[in-house]
Design goal:
This protein is of the alpha+beta class and 74 residues long. It has 3 helices and 2 strands; from the N terminus they run ααββα. The protein binds zinc ion.
């Protein structure tokens, strides 16, 4: 769980997500910024539902559990 925090995982509703985006962006400079884009549906991330998953491709931001399950079922 500590590793999640290193990548700016924010699963709480109250804390600000803005600073976490800046920490995430340099992690994958070769890809388009997805700090506020859902990896699955390209939609804007709902900050209340934001889920960041650590994968073999690096941290992936999803707009919510919906796309989280899509990714794991794919
Ligand atoms: Zn999505």
């Amino acid at each position: 769980m500590a590793k999640w925090k290193e990548f700016g995982v924010d699963l709480s509703e109250s804390s600000s997500a803005a600073p976490t985006f800046e920490r995430l962006a340099p992690a994958k400079p070769d890809e388009r910024p997805k700090d506020n884009i859902c990896y699955m549906c390209d939609g804007d991330n709902n900050l209340k539902m934001l889920v960041t998953v650590q994968t073999d491709k690096g941290p992936v931001r999803l707009c919510g559990p919906h796309c989280y399950f899509i990714m794991y079922s794919a």
